Amino acid sequence: MVWTVASVIYSKVGAQIAPLVLNLAKGAIAIVLTLGTAIALGAIDADRGVWVADLDRLAVGSLLLSGAIGIGVGDTAFFRSLNALDPRRALLLQTLAPPLSALLAIAVLRETLSPRAWFGIVLTMLGIAWAIAERVGVSPADRQGARRGILWGAISALAQATGAILSRGALAETAIDPLVSSLLRLCAGMLVLLAWLSCGDAPREPLRERRTRQSLLELTSPRLFGAIAIAAFLGTYLGIWLQQMSLKFAPAGIAQTLSATSPLFAIALARLMGERVTARATLGAIVALFGVTLLLTAG
Hints:
Layout: H1 2-13, H2 19-40, H3 57-84, H4 87-93, H5 97-109, H6 115-132, H7 140-173, H8 178-200, H9 206-218, H10 222-249, H11 252-259, H12 262-272, H13 279-297
């Protein structure tokens, strides 16, 4: 729910802020909030200094890689998707994450799936395709932008699925606190974003470089920064902390399935905001979520 509300805010500010800069800003805010909470709750002892050395190295490596992929790549791709699609359809694409998690588990963890689980995967993909393929009086340019949004959304879902599997492996096998894992993932994601920001705006890309500089200047606006701070508090600070707690105490597929209910909240928010929600979009979301349910209830 908090990620859905944050996504609506991000979709509004995304027209003014480049996706990379937006991801960097919300990550920095979330790191400050997470670090402060971890110290306040005793998950990190501020007097001990270096605390990562006390943790399992393999788990730390998995969490850092999870953050680099899931936050650094996944969130940036999601923001690019939001720029081309409405929040409802951008979130709907995230329902790809649970079946992708299952497929990755087969490849990486050598897990097997029952016929019912495979049917759930197919049903999920059909529901998503049905909902996002509708045309409601859009121009060719809009359709081209929508295709780009769908591509970025698919990349985001794959990155989120990969990050979830890496987090689940680290959290389930160790006593690492979800707050600490959240902080590690956020820091890794920020490093990727900083590297991306420094390398991505090469001289041969003057338009992108100008937009990045303009986005950094826009962050000085109290109103815009306030909106980003609220979204970062909800979607990044609370969202990632809650996700890590879920991944620690529940299988990755179940945690991802609950995250995949975002389209239902998005549809409800769209109605409250007076937007037109077609029957096809609603049914597509329901079919996709039913497919995810089948996947997770399969033996």
